């Protein structure tokens, strides 16, 4: 009992020490590198290529922050984290920001003492079935065997969905997406369920993708976004507004190709404020006036980032859907730069 | 007995006849081993069908294998729906599978050289004499492997071959005493073994050469202090050794900090290690550390001194009662909370400590079994010769106990080597971590399974089977009874 108390005290002391070293921005600048937590590998979102360079949708967020803060999109130390190690890595100060398709939930935000700073991908849990099963709706899946990753929110969502619709299923627990793929193809389960983006990526890797369909039901909300530790709001602001700058840039028509030209001054005052030709938004963040321009220049605006890594012209082939700008019927809605 | 009583007497020898066809050669073997009865026959036929099915599945997969494309989609295009493996993933990601994805390409020669030197360094530990042919073949194979590995960096292959050749020459030179086609491995070569940890560290991690040299100097100072004070008592010697070693290391710390660039190889941080190299590193280091620690623990557990005994018992029982994966999580995750922020306690070092603790607890129990198997007469014999504790253990007890324990120790070593793949769970990129993470998550190779896992199986099988064969050979060598 005593020992537990002692360990607990040590933990708290460690956390407090982490929070006390609050000025993350100064640390990052002194280090000259941003420590960014990513996944150990998820198709389209983060994976190193044959030369060991990280690339992907989440990786783009890291690079944009590094470009805004340090002026160099390559000044990122990518720290690969698993689903089990990601939160401790962030809480212990090993990483400055976690950009690892992490679902924004109440308990993670409040209980684990993190700040979610926005959503860079609106996901939701879906179902994939072979066409030969002849199923067109998830509600027809009574008695099906379902491949599901254990220890994730998807497992709980699945149970909720089947109970709400009063139908039964038989779970086939699996550890990773990579494990699910062959199991599903060999028919060990009738249905594979995970986030819709993961289903699309999985399906794209099949030899005959047209033999499989993703059912229309999306049974959960999975807003994925970057997060930082509680306690350093200045740093949180930088990450939040870098993400917003990418989203706003798409809305305003600023791309990596025309950003330099637009930075010369335009008729649109919001673009001017975003790119630092008017106002002092950069200084308010503790950065210089070109911060957003560098971020957009290095990775492109949100739309470019999306199309390049997971969009319809990539093997993953995700459509924008919920992740379109609010002007196009999506959910992306950056607060104004003013 | 008269001739007339006999109706027939053969006067000449019959020529020798071949045995019936069913009693010789292949047919006899087949009848005896495969078709010895109805049940045997049925089993044989079933096995043949199974073997045929397996071969029929695997052969086209291997034969049609594609080795040169740059993504799975291209593989499928080339195969046009035929069965065939997409082995291109192995050729394209070869370096990543072996070295991880962050080890600098132009430095690949360093771990490779360290690997070759490791082979040279463990030879005198593992063998007392080697067949000549074996040495020559090993040298040739090693050289070829090195050249193959470095094909990408051709310019660097030359120095490696030269050094590999030098190692072989040294082996042949030192082991000049020849006996019947064997080369006796000289004890002097053990010096190389002693030097290897320092050289290996310098090669793999880089940095100034002063750091490993000073580490070595500390060990030497400790050894000399031990010899100096040993006469007083063993404990005094030990204390003197520890003090001397730490004094040298402490003073040396200032020196290395002051002269960072002396003979420095580019530094590679631990986080950049990966691939099969990481498995080999963890396996080699942890096995070689846990054996001596295990021996000490086993002896400690049998000790008459209660404190030492109970420390050993508690350590062994506690560590053995905890899953290895838990210890790894502690190493990676929990320690991060306890250390002050900004402390950089090397992750590989943490993992090595945890795995070593784990396996030394197991080895201690294996060796305790060996100690218990010795008849009490052996202990009494040692006492009656007037040997003190250290001498009796070193000369009488341990050689016998260790010989009995070989199968158990090897069992632990093989298990430990395979357990090194568990580090993939704490986001280190060993061979399994590389496959599960970066390679299967790349858009090019998402969906390739059999080829990658098959490759991992082959690599691990080769090493583990090698260890197992060596241990069986060693048991035969050490056989002193007549059974």
What does this structure look like?
The complex is a heterodimer of chains A (338) and B (483). Chain A is built from 14 helices and 14 strands. Chain A has helices at 2-20, 24-31, 57-70, 86-91, 106-110, 153-164, 177-185, 196-204, 233-252, 259-262, 269-275, 281-285, 291-299, 302-309; strands at residues 34-39, 47-48, 54-55, 76-81, 97-98, 114-116, 121-123, 125-130, 144-149, 169-174, 191-195, 212-214, 222-224, 227-229. In chain A, strand 9 (144-149), helix 6 (153-164) and strand 10 (169-174) form a beta-alpha-beta unit. The longest helix of chain A is centred in the C-terminal third of the chain and has 20 residues, at 233-252. The termini of chain A are far apart. Chain B has 483 residues and is mostly helical. In chain B, 69% of the residues lie in helices and 2% in strands. Chain B contains 19 helices and 3 strands. Chain B has a 3-stranded antiparallel β-sheet with strand order 1-3-2. The two termini of chain B are 53 Å apart. The model of chain B is unreliable at 176-180 (pLDDT under 50). Classes of the chains: A alpha/beta (338), B mainly alpha (483). Chains A and B meet through helix 1, strand 2, strand 4, helix 4 and helix 7 of A and helix 3, helix 14 and helix 18 of B.
Short characterization:
The complex is a heterodimer of chains A (338) and B (483). Chain A is of the alpha/beta class and 338 residues long. Helices cover 40% and strands 17% of the residues of chain A.
CATH T-level topology of the largest domain in chain A: D-Maltodextrin-Binding Protein, domain 2
Rg of chain A (CA only) = 21 Å
H/E element string of chain A? HHEEEHEHEHEEEEHEHEHEEEHHHHHH
- Determine and state the CATH class of the largest domain in chain A: Alpha Beta
Note the total helix count of chain A.
14
Entry keywords:
heterodimer; A: 338 residues; alpha/beta; D-Maltodextrin-Binding Protein, domain 2; 3-stranded parallel sheet; 14 helices; 14 strands; 40% helix; 17% strand; globular; B: mainly alpha; 3-stranded antiparallel sheet; 19 helices
């Amino acid at each position: 009992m005593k020992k537990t108390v002692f360990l607990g005290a040590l933990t708290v002391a460690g956390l407090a020490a982490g929070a006390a070293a609050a000025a993350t921005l100064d640390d990052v600048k002194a280090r000259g590198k941003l420590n960014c937590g990513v996944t150990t590998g998820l198709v389209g979102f983060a994976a190193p290529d044959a030369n060991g360079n990280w690339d992907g949708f989440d990786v783009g967020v890291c690079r944009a922050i590094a470009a805004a803060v340090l002026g160099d999109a390559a000044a990122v130390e990518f720290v690969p984290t698993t689903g089990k190690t990601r939160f401790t890595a962030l809480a212990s100060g090993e990483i400055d920001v976690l950009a690892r398709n992490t679902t924004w939930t109440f308990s993670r935000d409040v209980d684990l003492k993190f700040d979610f700073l926005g959503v860079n991908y609106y996901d939701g849990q879906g179902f994939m079935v072979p066409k030969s099963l002849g199923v067109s709706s998830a509600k027809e899946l009574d008695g099906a065997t379902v491949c599901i990753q254990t220890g994730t929110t998807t497992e709980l969502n699945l149970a909720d969905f089947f109970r709400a619709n009063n139908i039964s299923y038989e779970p086939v627990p699996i550890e990773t997406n990579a494990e699910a793929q062959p199991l599903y193809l060999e028919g060990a389960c009738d249905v594979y369920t995970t986030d819709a983006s993961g289903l699309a990526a999985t399906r794209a890797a099949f030899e005959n993708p047209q033999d499989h369909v993703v059912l229309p039901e999306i049974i959960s909300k999975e807003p994925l976004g970057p997060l930082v530790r509680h306690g350093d709001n200045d740093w949180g602001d930088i990450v939040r507004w870098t993400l917003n700058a990418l989203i706003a840039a798409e809305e305003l028509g600023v791309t990596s190709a025309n950003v330099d030209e637009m930075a010369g001054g335009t008729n649109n005052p919001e673009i001017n404020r975003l790119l630092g030709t008017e106002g002092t938004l950069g200084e308010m963040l503790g950065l210089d006036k070109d911060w957003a321009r560098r971020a957009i220049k290095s990775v492109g605006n949100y739309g470019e980032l999306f199309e390049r890594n997971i969009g319809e012209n990539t093997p993953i082939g995700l459509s924008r859907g919920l992740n379109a700008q609010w002007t196009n019927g999506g959910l992306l809605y950056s607060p104004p730069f003013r | 007995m008269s001739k007339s009583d006999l109706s027939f007497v053969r006067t000449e020898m019959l020529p020798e006849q071949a045995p019936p066809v069913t009693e010789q050669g292949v047919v006899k073997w087949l009848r005896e081993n495969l078709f010895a009865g109805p049940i045997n026959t049925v089993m044989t036929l079933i096995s043949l069908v199974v073997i045929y099915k397996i071969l029929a599945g695997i052969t086209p997969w291997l034969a049609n294998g594609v080795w040169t494309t740059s993504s799975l989609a291209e593989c499928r295009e080339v195969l046009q729906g035929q069965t065939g493996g997409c082995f291109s993933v192995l050729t394209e990601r070869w370096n990543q599978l072996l070295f991880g994805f962050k080890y600098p390409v132009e430095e690949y020669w360093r771990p490779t050289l360290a690997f070759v030197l490791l082979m040279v360094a463990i030879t005198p530990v593992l063998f007392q004499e080697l067949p000549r042919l074996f040495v020559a073949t090993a040298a040739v194979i090693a050289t070829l492997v090195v050249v193959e590995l470095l094909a990408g960096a051709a310019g660097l292959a030359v120095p490696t071959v030269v050094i590999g050749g030098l190692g072989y020459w040294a082996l042949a030179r030192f082991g000049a005493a020849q006996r019947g086609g064997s080369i006796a491995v000289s004890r002097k070569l053990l010096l190389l073994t002693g030097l290897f940890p320092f050289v290996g560290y310098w090669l793999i991690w880089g940095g100034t050469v002063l750091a490993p040299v000073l580490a070595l100097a500390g060990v030497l100072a400790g050894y000399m202090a031990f010899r100096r004070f040993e006469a007083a008592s063993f404990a005094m010697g030990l204390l003197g050794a520890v003090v001397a070693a730490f004094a040298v290391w402490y003073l040396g710390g200032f020196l290395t900090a002051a002269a960072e660039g002396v003979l420095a190889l580019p530094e590679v941080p631990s986080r950049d290690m990966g691939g099969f190299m990481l498995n080999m590193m963890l396996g080699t280091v942890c096995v070689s550390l846990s054996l001596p620690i295990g021996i000490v623990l086993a002896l400690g557990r049998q000790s008459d001194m209660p404190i030492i005994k109970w420390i050993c018992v508690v350590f062994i029982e506690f560590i053995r009662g905890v899953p290895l994966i838990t210890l790894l999580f502690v190493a990676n995750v929990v320690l991060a909370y306890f250390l002050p922020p900004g402390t950089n306690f090397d992750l590989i070092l943490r993992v090595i400590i945890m795995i070593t603790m784990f396996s030394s607890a197991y080895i201690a129990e294996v060796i305790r079994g060996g100690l218990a198997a010795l008849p009490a007469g052996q202990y009494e014999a040692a006492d009656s010769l007037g040997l003190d504790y250290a001498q009796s253990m070193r000369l009488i007890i341990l050689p016998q106990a260790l010989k009995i324990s070989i199968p158990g120790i090897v069992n632990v070593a093989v298990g430990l080597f395979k357990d090194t793949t568990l580090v993939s769970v704490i986001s280190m990129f060993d061979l399994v971590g590389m496959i599960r993470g970066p390679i299967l998550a790349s858009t090019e190779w998402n969906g390739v399974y059999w080829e990658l896992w098959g490759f991992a199986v082959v690599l691990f099988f080769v090493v583990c089977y090698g260890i197992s064969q060596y241990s069986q050979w060693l048991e035969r060598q050490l056989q002193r009874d007549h059974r």
